[in-house]
Amino acid sequence: MSVAALISIILACYVLGCVNAGYYLVRFRTGRDIRESGSGSSGARNVSRTLGRLGFAITLVVDAGKGALAIWLAQHFDLEPWAVGVTMFAVVAGHVWPAQLRFRGGKGMAPALGIGLILNPVLVATAVLVAAFAMATFRHLTFSGLVAITATPAIAYGLGQDGVLVVAIGFVVTLVLFAHRENILEFLSNRKQRLDWYRRL
Q: How many helices (H) and strands (E) does the chain have?
C-alpha cells in the first residue's frame, strides 16, 4: 500500500471519530449543545441526562460502531500492526478532539469499546469482569470503567496479542485516561475526604 493511501485511511478514521453521535442527536432533538450541560461531554452517559435511556443507547451504539468500523477498515486493507494501532488512536482522537466541534467531544470510552469488540472480544469480556470487580470494590461506575480500560494492555498481552498492538492499546488507554482526568481527580478527592473523615472519628 502506498504512503498516500495509508495516510488517507488514517485521516478517514479520524474524520469517522469526529462524528459525535451525542452532540448531533441532542442538537437535533432539543437544539441545545450537550457539552454545555452535565459533565460537558458528548458521550452516552451525559446524553442520557437529557434524552434518557434511548439517547444513551443510540449514542453508545453509534460511537462504539466508529471504533469497530475503524478496525474493520484496517483489517480489510490488511494493514501492518503498527498502522492498525495508528487507526485505533486516530478514531479515538477524532471522538475526543473533533475538529468541527472546536476539539471538544466525548471521552473515548465508547469507540475504545468498539475497537476491542472487533480486535478481540475475549479482551472486552475480560475487561468487563475487571470492571465488575472494581465496581464491587469502589462503588463508582466511571472509575470502575477506567480501572478496566487501564488493565486492557496487560490483558491483551496475557491473551497473546501482537506486541505492537499491545503498545498501541496502551496509547489509546492513555488518551482515554487523559480525557477523563477531571473524573479521576474528583474521585480521588472524594476518597481522600472520606478517609480524612474516618480518621477524625
A: 9, 0
Closest by Cα among 116, 197, 191 to 161: 116
Kindly give, in sequence order, each residue whose CB lies less than 8 Å from that of residue 67, ignoring residues fewer than 6 positions away. 88, 91, 92, 110, 111, 112, 113, 114, 115, 116, 117, 118
Could you give the count of Cα atoms lying within 13 Å of 67 in the half-sphere of its Cβ? 27
Question: What are the φ/ψ torsions at residue 139 (nearest 5 degrees)?
Answer: 55, 40
Nine-digit cell string for 4 = 498516500
Query: Tens of pLDDT along the chain (201 residues)?
Result: 778 889 999 999 999 999 999 999 999 989 898 988 877 788 888 899 888 999 999 999 999 999 999 999 998 999 999 999 999 999 999 999 999 999 999 999 999 999 999 999 999 999 999 999 988 887 777 788 889 999 999 999 999 999 999 999 999 999 999 998 887 887 777 665 554 544 554
Query: Per-residue b/e over 120-149, b at no fewer than 16 CB within 10 Å?
Result: beebbebbeebbeebbeeeebebbbbbbbb
**Backbone angles phi and psi of 40, in degrees to 5:** 85, 5
pTM reported for the whole predicted model: 0.88
